[in-house]
């Protein structure tokens, strides 16, 4: 059974991302003062669907064709990139990058949930 947190985290990269819109998988993250080293990418998925007010505005301005197109590749500030990761301690977490700008032009990283642990 998963434990849900949905709390913002600080991420660390071995090499800084070239593109803010798609930063990719970090090498580690800090949550509640503890650093977690990511040792394995278990699964990756993306959701670029505009939601709520932004979807309505986007459809009005550009039409439904552009909304469908954006859902495939993502528009700036819309969508999330999800990663299921295994940490050095064997814990498995789902984290995501929310592309909606929070501070300036950057999105935010969130620890969504703890999925489980290796029992080895």
TL;DR?
This protein is an alpha+beta fold and about 120 residues long. Helices cover about 20% and strands about 50% of the residues.
Overview of the molecule:
- It is a single chain.
- By secondary structure, the chain is of the alpha+beta class.
- It has a domain at 3-43 and 79-117.
- It is 18% helix and 51% strand.
- The chain is built from two helices and six strands; from the N terminus they run βββααβββ.
- The chain has a six-stranded antiparallel β-barrel with strand order 1-2-3-4-5-6.
- Helix 1 crosses helix 2 (64-73).
- The two termini are 18 Å apart.
- The model has no long low-confidence stretch (mean pLDDT 81).
Biggest sheet: strands side by side, in what order? Answer: 1-2-3-4-5-6
User: How big a fraction of the residues is strand?
Assistant: over 45%
Largest sheet: 6 strands, antiparallel, barrel
Mean pLDDT rating: 81
User: How much helix is in the residues?
Assistant: 10-25%
The N- to C-terminal Cα distance equals 18 Å
Give the CA-based shape: globular
- Decide which structural class fits the backbone: alpha+beta
Please work out how many helical segments DSSP would assign: 2
Order of helices and strands: EEEHHEEE
Question: What is the CA-atom radius of gyration, in angstroms?
Answer: 16 Å
Poorly predicted runs of 5 or more residues: none
Number of strands: 6
What keywords describe this structure?
single chain; 120 residues; alpha+beta; six-stranded antiparallel beta barrel; 2 helices; 6 strands; globular
How are the elements arranged and paired?
Layout: E1 3-12, E2 28-31, E3 34-47, H1 52-62, H2 64-73, E4 80-87, E5 91-103, E6 106-117
Antiparallel strand pairs: 1-2, 1-6, 2-3, 3-4, 4-5, 5-6
Helix pairs in contact: 1-2
């Amino acid at each position: 059974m998963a434990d849900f947190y949905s709390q913002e985290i600080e991420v660390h990269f071995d090499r800084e991302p070239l593109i803010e819109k798609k930063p990719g998988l970090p090498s580690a993250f800090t949550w509640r003062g503890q650093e977690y080293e990511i040792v394995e990418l278990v699964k990756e998925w993306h959701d670029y669907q505009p939601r709520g007010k932004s979807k309505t505005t986007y459809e009005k301005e550009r039409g439904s064709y552009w909304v469908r197109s954006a859902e495939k590749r993502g528009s700036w500030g819309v969508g999330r990139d999800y990663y299921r990761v295994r940490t050095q301690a064997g814990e498995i977490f789902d984290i995501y990058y929310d592309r909606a700008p929070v501070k300036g032009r950057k999105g935010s990283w969130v620890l969504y949930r703890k999925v489980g642990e290796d029992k080895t």
